[in-house]
């Protein structure tokens, strides 16, 4: 099964943002991270309650999603084994597609080909992004330390 990103995302409406703020707050109040699963209640259109047992990990993910929506951000859930096009991967890294292709061809980032098209696994992209972010943080810390040593602060 091929997993790719959906083609379109839309920003949440003001009422959705308000509901996300309230929902995240309420969920945080009752969420117990000591349990593997938890039961929540959902009301249907006729106000009939339905009990649903969910993994606590899914509820934690829902809290994160609600936090993003509360800030007005569009959210997308991507399976860890999803295959991304070079444009999708470039968008996630906030770089140009030609720059991403250069990273692929130089071996900086793993990829495979589907026919003539390069594909990047989401998990590999996130691993690369984490390494890049760590290197960037270290470089900023080194610059900060150097400027302090030289008395620029």
Automatic annotation (TrEMBL):
SUPFAM superfamilies on file: Putative DNA-binding domain
Annotated ranges, domain Helix-turn-helix: 84-132
Matching InterPro entries: DNA-bd_dom_put_sf, HTH_17, SinI_DNA-bd
Protein name: Helix-turn-helix domain-containing protein
Natural source organism: Candidatus Pantoea multigeneris
Classification of source organism: Bacteria, Pseudomonadati, Pseudomonadota, Gammaproteobacteria, Enterobacterales
């Amino acid at each position: 099964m091929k997993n790719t990103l959906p083609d379109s995302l839309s920003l949440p409406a003001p009422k959705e943002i308000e509901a996300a703020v309230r929902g995240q707050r309420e969920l945080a109040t009752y969420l117990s991270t000591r349990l593997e699963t938890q039961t929540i209640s959902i009301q249907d259109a006729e106000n009939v309650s339905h009990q649903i047992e969910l993994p606590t990990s899914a509820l934690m993910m829902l809290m994160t999603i609600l936090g993003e929506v509360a800030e007005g951000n569009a959210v997308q859930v991507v399976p860890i084994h999803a295959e991304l096009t070079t444009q999708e991967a470039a968008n996630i890294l906030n770089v140009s597609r030609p720059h991403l292709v250069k990273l692929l061809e130089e071996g900086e980032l793993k990829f495979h080909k589907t026919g003539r098209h390069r594909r990047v696994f989401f998990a590999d992209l996130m691993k690369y992004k984490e390494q890049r972010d760590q290197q960037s943080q270290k470089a900023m810390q080194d610059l900060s330390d150097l400027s302090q040593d030289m008395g620029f602060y």
